[in-house]
Write a structure and sequence with these properties.
Elements: H1 2-33, H2 37-63, E1 72-82, E2 93-102, E3 107-116, E4 119-129, E5 132-136, E6 145-148, H3 157-162, H4 168-184, E7 191-200, E8 203-214, H5 216-231, H6 234-244, H7 248-264, E9 272-279, E10 282-290, E11 293-300, E12 303-309, E13 313-319, E14 324-330, E15 333-342, E16 346-355, E17 358-371, E18 375-388, E19 391-405, E20 418-419, H8 425-441, H9 447-452
Parallel strand pairs: 6-20
Antiparallel strand pairs: 1-2, 1-19, 2-3, 3-4, 4-5, 5-6, 7-8, 8-9, 9-10, 10-11, 11-12, 12-13, 13-14, 14-15, 15-16, 16-17, 17-18, 18-19
Length: about 450
């Protein structure tokens, strides 16, 4: 009997030791190996900021507008093509726009023309020289017209040369300060940690789920913390005022007003849950849950996926190796779907819509993109296909676009130009009559006549 009791005690002691070891291992794991929730969110917020800062640098570089030292030519020709009867009158019509801009010398030239089956219908020339715009069109009037002083039919040279730019150093400081305030506002008492299994790109992952709970109290506390942090930071207030070109007093007044209005509001109607799904200290997926709306974002193998899901609708954008696809569904039925393809020599957006049982396909394509030092060209196609009771219809705007640096600015003789304000009523009537004839050839009917009457 004593030997039996001894074995029982040995078993109890053995189990106790194993349980104690398991307890110690769990304590060590959760204390040292399992990431601290605040630390996980801090790292995620910092990483998001670093990505944003990197993108800001790219935007800053792209927005540094270097005024061309040579004239720039922008040329496009295009036509409308369709098998719809309503577009039959546009058959054989082609249009062109040719513009040359000389920023340094504040000169520009614009040519608009249209033809039908290679027979010219109209050509309009507009020249901007020495602060004046001039108009010439032999089809409308036999003399050059002085249009007067203006900003060169849309080109404001002073704005292009001296336009306001965003101070990206100030913007970086503001974003970094707000990022730091957001991190400092995190409260460890509002975190939840669970183990989950998720599926991304058809692969299963065992992850740790870190959730930050923003109920009405915590959300209100966070907003107050951030607003007070901004108001207590004179450097941050000054940077915000510089960005928006307003006085610091105005910024303080606006923030105080928002502060007071928020305190008087009813607060959150639904608790907000912000979740990060982590494996080996890498965030595989993030989610924002408010009521029945769930926002998700993941980035696995450099391929992102973003979705917004509610009780009856879903919008999703996801990246494949060769394109980006998207769709919008309602009650399980696809309403809109499509894809975007971006390559060195091609860019395409294709959208399919189900309009009351009629499938419609919209497309925008830039093709044969060729970028050289002084010249850039591409073909473009913008249009629509649809299927109505088995009948296929289409309409598209097809053309080519070219820009060239280092060209001469065209001009025409303006020495005998007539001020447009000096035209007689008979001159104006003749011009309008000829314009109406041109518009009729272009498929616009008696538009001008109707406008006059």
């Amino acid at each position: 009997m004593e030997e039996k009791n001894s074995n029982v005690w040995k078993l109890i002691v053995g189990v106790s030791v194993v349980l104690a070891l398991i307890g110690v291992m769990l304590f060590v794991y959760f204390t040292f190996f399992r990431s601290n929730p605040v630390s996980v969110f801090r790292t995620a917020i910092n990483n998001a900021y670093f990505k944003l800062e990197s993108n800001l640098e790219n935007i800053d570089d792209s927005n540094n507008f270097n005024v061309p030292t040579e004239p720039v030519r922008m040329y496009s020709n295009f036509s409308i093509n369709s098998n719809l009867d309503v577009f039959k009158e546009y058959d054989g019509l082609s249009y062109s726009v040719d513009m040359v801009v000389d920023y340094q010398n504040e000169k520009s030239f614009l040519e608009l023309s249209a033809s039908k089956f290679d027979e010219s219908i109209i050509k309009v020339l507009i020249s901007y020289l020495e602060g004046n715009s001039y108009f010439k069109s032999d089809e409308l009037f036999d003399k050059v017209l002085l249009l007067g002083q203006n900003d060169s039919f849309g080109f404001d040279f002073s704005q292009q040369l001296n336009g306001e730019e965003i101070d990206y150093d100030e913007l970086r400081f503001v974003l970094k300060s707000l990022k730091d305030l957001l991190i400092d506002s995190l409260d460890k008492d509002y975190f939840e940690v669970t183990d989950e299994r998720i599926v991304l790109k058809d692969v299963k992952y065992n992850v740790e789920k870190y959730t930050y709970v923003l109920d009405d109290y915590n959300f209100n506390r966070t907003i107050n913390f951030i607003l007070e942090g901004i108001l207590d930071n004179s450097d941050l207030l000054e940077s915000i005022s510089n960005l928006y070109n307003v006085d610091v007093d105005e910024v303080e007044s606006l923030l105080n007003s928002y502060f007071e209005n928020y305190e008087e509001s009813e607060g959150l109607s639904d608790t907000v849950f912000v979740s990060l799904y982590v494996k080996n200290k890498e965030v595989l997926m993030s989610r924002l849950n408010v009521g029945d709306v769930l926002l998700s974002y993941s980035n696995v193998d450099e391929l992102f996926e973003f979705s917004i899901v509610s009780s009856d609708a879903e919008f999703k954008v996801y990246e494949n190796t060769d394109n980006v696809e998207f769709y919008l569904s309602n009650n399980g039925l696809d309403i809109i779907s499509g894809y975007v393809v971006s390559k060195d020599d091609k860019f395409e957006v294709n959208v399919s819509i189900d309009s009351q049982g009629v499938p419609i396909n919209l497309f925008f394509i830039l093709d044969n993109i060729d970028i050289q030092d002084n010249e850039r060209t591409f073909d473009f196609y913008l249009g629509m296909n649809m299927n109505v009771f088995g009948e296929k219809y289409n309409v598209s705007l097809d053309g080519q676009f070219t820009t060239v640096n280092g060209v001469d600015v065209p001009s025409f003789d303006v020495s005998n130009a007539i001020d447009v304000n000096a035209l007689s009523e008979q001159d104006l009537e003749n011009i309008m009559f000829k314009l109406n004839d041109v518009l009729s050839k272009l498929g616009f009917g008696d538009f001008t006549t109707q406008s006059i009457s």
